[in-house]
Amino acid sequence: TLDLRDNQLSSVPAEIVQLSQLTTLNLSSNQLSSVPEWVRDLPKLVNLHLLGNPIAIPPEILGNVFLAGDLATIFRFAFAPETQPLYEAKLIIVGDGSAGKTTLANKLKNPDYELQPEEKSTEGIDLIPWEIDHPNGNPLRTKIWDFGGQQIYHSTHQFFLTERSVYILVADTRKENTDFYYWLRVVETLSNGSPVIVVKNEKQNRQCDLDERSLRAEFLNLKEILAVNLADNRGLAELQNTLQNYLCHLPHVGMNVPIPWANIRAVLENLSQNHNFITRDRYFELCRNNGFDTEKEMLVASKFLHDLGICLHFQNVRGLRKLLILKPTWATGSIYKILDHKQIKADFGRFNDDDLETIWDEGDAAKMRDELLDLMMHFGLCYEIPNRRGHYISPQLLEKESLDYAWDDRDNLVLRYEYTFKPKDIFPRFVVAVHEIIENQALVWRHGVVLTDGYARAEIIEEDRYHKAEIKIRVSGTNKRDLLSYVARELEKISNTYDRIDYETYIPCNCATCKNSPKPHTYTWENLRRRLQNKRYEVECELSYVNVNVRSLLDDIAVPQLIDRDDDSMMLADRTARSSPFSPTVIVNYQNPQQTMTQNTGRTINTGGGDYRENHITGSNAQYAERDIVNNHNPSPTETAELLKTWLKDLDLSSHSDQDDLKDELLYQPPAQQNQIWDWMDNVSRNSDTRDEAIKTFAEVLGSLFGLPGTIIAGTFKVAYTALTKAKAKRNELPANYENPFDASGL
Fold it and tell me: Model-level pTM greater than 0.85?
C-alpha cells in the first residue's frame, strides 16, 4: 500500500511503477488533472483512490472516501480511445403547493405558454424536456423536474434531489408564507450545495420583500433572487439567461464519457418513449450490444444514469435491483395514486391488497404491483402490518392527534435528540423501520409511536416542526437498555443517511436525584465523548451537584456492539458529529472499567473473552476495519450472544415459509457478514457456556420478536448451524488465499 493522499501533488513520479507488489495506491485529494498512464503497468494493482482531484471522471466512478472505484471502469474513462462529451443537466423546481411551479416550468420552455385559470396540481413529479444552447455551440439537453408541493410528496425528495442539478425555489408573493428556511435547508442538505435561484412569482404584480442579506449569509448556495410575472413575462428572459449560465457551468456538463456509455444513455432514452421499465437482464444485453465488457461496469453505468435522472435503478433494494425504471413519472405517479386516494386518506393511510388491485388496475401498474409496493416500502411510504398479510399503513397519513394510553413513568430511561434541521420524512421512515414491534400494532400516530419487545416499552415522540426540533425517547419496564439501544440505532441509521444533518444526543443523568425523575439532568454526548478522550471520568450533575461516572452513564443506555463491516455508514470514525454511544465506531469496554474508550485504530481492545486488534485491511477487503482475534482467544459467551441477537434481528424470519428459504437468507449475506456469522456459530458449537447463552438468546429474540413456538426456535437454530457448517466445508475445499470463501458454486 502506498498512501500519497492530501499532498497537493500535480504529478506523480513514474518510478512508482517499479513497485511490482503494489495493490493499493491512494492519490486522493491532490491536484492531479489526469490519471497517470503508467498506473496501468502496475501488475497487481487492485485499488486506485483518486477522489478529490480535478479529474474529468464522475465521482461515482472514482468511489468514495473508503472504497476505491472499479479499476477497469476508471481506466475505461481515463484511457478510452474514443469518447463523447456529455451535455445533460437537471433543473429541479421546488416550493409549496400552488406557488406556480408548473406554470414556470412550461414558461421556461415556451414563453408563449398560456396561463391556465386553474393549473392542475402536480401529482408527484412531472418531467419537461428543455433544450438550451451551450456557449460552445452544443445543445444542452435539460430536464425540468417539477415536484408536487404537497407535504405527502416530501418523503421522496431524498431520492431525487441530487447533485449535478440547478434548483429553483418558487415563492408565491400573494401568500407571503413561503418557508424559505425549510426549502433552502432541504436543498442544501440533499444536493451537496448545488446552486439555488429563488424566484418570486409576483402574481397580480404583488411584490414581496425578503431579508436577502440574512438568507445569503446562511445559505452559501443561494446564488440569485429574481422576480417574475408569468402573466406578462416580466423578468422571464433574465431568469432564462441566468438559469442557462448556471446549467452550462455544472461540473459534469461537457465531460467526456466512453462511447459505450454515451450509447447506452441514448438507447435507454429511446426505449423510454414506449417502455416504463426494463429488466436488469435486458439492460445487460443492451450494454453488451453497445460495447460494455463486464456486468460490474454496466452497474456502475446504471448508477451514473440514475444520478443523472435518465433512469431509476435501486441496486441495493432486493425487490428492485432486477428492474430499471425508465420513466420516473410512471413510478411516482403510480405511488401517489395510492397516497392521494380519497378513501385511503379518510382511513388515515390504511389500505390492503384489494385496494391495490382496484387502484393499480391497468397497464404496467397492474403487472408490477409487487415492485411498486417494494418501491413504496423502500421510500418509507408504507409498511405491512405484522400478522395481517396484505394490509398496509402509510405513516404520513396517520392521525395527527396523539393517542391515549397508560404509561409508568417510574425509573424510565430517557434519551433526547435535538436536530438543527429535521427533514419531515425522518420520523415516518423510522416508524416503517420499527413497525414490527409497535405495541398491539395500534399505538402509532403521525408524530409518535409506542414500541414493545415483551420486556420493556418505548415511547418515541417527535416535535411537529423541523427547525431546532427534538425527538424524545423514554423507556420503561425491564431490560430497558436493550430496547433503548435498538430504537436509538434505528433512528440514527435513518438520520445518518443525510450527509449534512447535525443532531445532538442528550443522555440522562443516573445519580440518585435524577434516577427516578421524569426530567433528569442531561449531558450532551459530545461533552461526554470529549471527557473520555481527555481521561476525565467524572462529571457533575447540575441538579444534585454530585459527581457521576461517565462510563456508567453510557453503560446505562447503550449495549456494546461490534462494527458492521458491510455498512458504509458505520465507517465514519473520524466524523465525531455522527458518533454516538450506540455507534459501532465507538468502543466502550464494559468488562474493564479502568480501560479508556478510544476511536483510534491499530489498538488492542479487551472484550472480556480475549483481545481483539482492530486493523485497516487493504486489497479487496479495504472496505471495512477488520477485527482479528489475538492469540486465538474466543469471544466471551455474553458477547457471542449479543452478536447473535443483533444478527437475528437483521434477518426477516417472518417471510420464510420453509427451511430452504431461511438457508437462502443465511447464505445471501455479504461475504464479510457470512464470515462473521460463521465465527459466532463455530464458537457456539465448541463452547458449552457460549452454546447455552446463545440458545437462550435465540429463544428470547425469536419468541419476543416473531412469536414463534419452541419447536420453530429449535429448528431455526438447527437450520442455521447446518447451513453454515456446509458453508465451512465449502470453504475448506477452496485455496487458502481465496478471499470470498462463501462465493462458491453449489451453496
Answer: no
